[in-house]
Amino acid sequence: MNLTALVLLAFAMSTDAFAAAIGKGAAMRKPKFLQALRIGLLFGVIEAITPLIGWFAGSVATKWVSEWDHWIAFVLLLVLGARMIREGFSGGDEDVPPEPQNQSVLMLALTAVATSIDAMAVGVGLAFVDVSIVEASLLIGLATTIMVTIGVMVGRLLGSVIGKRAEIIGGVVLIGVGAVILYEHLGA
Predict the structure, then answer these.
(1) Where are the domains positioned within the chain?
(2) What's the short name of a Pfam family annotated to this entry (predicted)?
(3) What is the pLDDT of residues 152-171, one digit of tens each?
(4) What is the pTM of this model?
């Protein structure tokens, strides 16, 4: 994978967290930049760790599936992307009441873990391609930190409509990255 694909992957992985951050920002009265940055850093660290966990699990399996690795990465990204698109089109969260102003670190961490499960699955897929997992994880964490910080700051203004669109765009990007991986491997 080249750097452009990694950056696109990183921002695609951050869209779930971005959508959640918009909701968090909308629930806060007037989020300050330092509050948003702390939330962004929490999400970013968790989002950077989960692909490492997935990569280690996937690395154990590489010797058994090396002939199919590009297909595995493609299918994982395709399924994750399709799930994100489906969730982006679903109207599930409109009737949920806003959360209280003071967010506990535990609740924020649980939200961050919930939005980073897909990054763990991507980490499994990355174990099957030629990529620096440390570089990929750092980029995913940085992109998530940036996106969550922005999401919290503008959440009150943008509401949940943009959050759903962010998930749709992120899903399309994931499918695109999977297609590029498949194309590069089959074309080699």
Answers:
(1) 3-187
(2) Mntp
(3) 898 767 655 565 677 777 67
(4) 0.71
